[in-house]
């Protein structure tokens, strides 16, 4: 079902772009050891 998820994210990301960016930043700064 890759196409389904692609379409889902294509619709989901523009609606919550700022939230996802904030979440990615939070994860990135909270788990630097994973890098």
Automatic annotation (TrEMBL):
<protein>
    <submittedName>
        <fullName>Uncharacterized protein</fullName>
    </submittedName>
</protein>
């Amino acid at each position: 079902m890759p196409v389904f998820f692609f379409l889902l994210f294509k619709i989901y990301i523009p609606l919550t772009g700022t939230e996802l960016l904030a979440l990615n930043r939070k994860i990135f700064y909270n788990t630097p050891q994973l890098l």
